[in-house]
Write a structure and sequence with these properties.
By secondary structure, the protein is an alpha/beta fold. The chain has a single domain (about 5-150, about 195-230), classed as Vaccinia Virus protein VP39 (Rossmann fold, 3-Layer(aba) Sandwich). Helix content is about 45%, strand content about 20%. A 7-stranded mixed β-sheet has the order 3-2-1-4-5-7-6, sandwiched between helices. Helix 4 links the parallel strand 2 (about 75) and strand 3. Helix 6 packs antiparallel against helix 7 (about 185-195). The structure holds S-adenosylmethionine. S-adenosylmethionine (SAM) binds near residues 8, 55, 77, 101 and 124. Keywords: Menaquinone biosynthesis, Methyltransferase, S-adenosyl-L-methionine, Transferase. It is an enzyme of class 2 (transferase). It holds the Pfam family Ubie_methyltran. InterPro entries: SAM-dependent_MTases_sf, UbiE/COQ5_MeTrFase, UbiE/COQ5_MeTrFase_CS. Its EC number is 2.1.1.163.
Length: about 230
């Protein structure tokens, strides 16, 4: 499928104004719970900064900042329209939002104690390059975390979720977001093609992360993947 930067950026530019409302509607607000669980699992050890890539409208970056007000938090994304919304939500100006491609992060090596991505890595054209960049800018001993959709394993749930995801969600999404380029058709396709479970852990190991593990959320509808950069 076409995951070129131009296509993905344009798609998110079009849905940006309705992205948050759509997210909460289509996931019946469970996305908020997932991000909270991701924040709970962060290993924040000191006051070194935390980076959230593909931050979009900033929900994870803002949740991290709320939990750790003394820690600098940076949110990066290559879609300016999404970042504008993130910035508008950040009334306290607590998070530094900046425009950057996750495959070419504008940071020196070893900068951040944690590097996170929520529902973003799936959209990055070169998954391994995105993971390698997250690992590069992470401090030795620091944590890399990926929150992403996955496929439930329980047979009945797998079937009903598959139906919802393939047939209901794209229609409701397209109607609500009024998106020409079928962003919500893209969603099930991109999830279907993206490695999940052990396959993604293997990719994380391949870029050099250690102690990798996966925690399924909501019976495997989403998963938190974690790894550490060797100390
Ligand atoms: C589904 S949204 C997720 C936003 C947010 N993290 C959340 O949890 O709601 C995916 C985001 O990834 C961004 N994105 C996709 N590919 C990217 C890349 N190569 N570099 C930077 N951002 C990218 C898009 O612009 C979009 O804002």
């Amino acid at each position: 499928m076409d995951k070129s930067g131009a296509r993905v950026r344009e798609m998110f530019r079009q849905i940006a104004p309705r992205y948050d409302a759509m997210n909460h509607l289509l996931s019946v607000n469970i996305d908020r719970l997932w991000r909270r669980q991701a924040v709970n699992r962060l290993r924040v050890r000191d006051q070194n900064p935390i980076l959230d890539v593909c931050t979009g409208t900033g929900d994870l970056a803002l949740a991290i900042k709320k939990r750790h007000p003394d820690v600098p938090v940076v949110g990066s994304d290559f879609c300016f329209a999404m970042l504008q919304i993130a910035h508008a939500k950040d009334a306290d100006r607590g998070v530094d939002f900046l425009e950057a491609d996750a495959q070419h992060l504008p940071f020196p090596d070893h900068q951040f104690q944690c590097v996170t991505v929520a529902f973003g890595l799936r959209n990055v054209a070169d998954t391994d390059r995105g993971l390698a960049e997250m690992m590069r800018v992470c401090q030795p001993g620091g944590q890399v975390m990926v929150l992403e959709f996955s496929t439930p394993t329980l047979p009945l749930l797998k079937q009903s979720y598959g139906f919802y995801f393939r047939h209901v969600l794209p229609r409701v999404g397209q109607w609500f977001a009024r998106n020409d380029k079928s962003a919500y058709q893209y969603l099930p396709e991109s999830v279907g093609q993206f490695p999940s479970g052990q396959a993604l852990l293997d990719r994380m190991t391949a870029v050099g992360l250690v102690d990798t593990r996966a925690k399924q959320l909501t019976c495997g509808v989403a998963t938190i993947y974690e790894g550490s950069k060797p100390a």
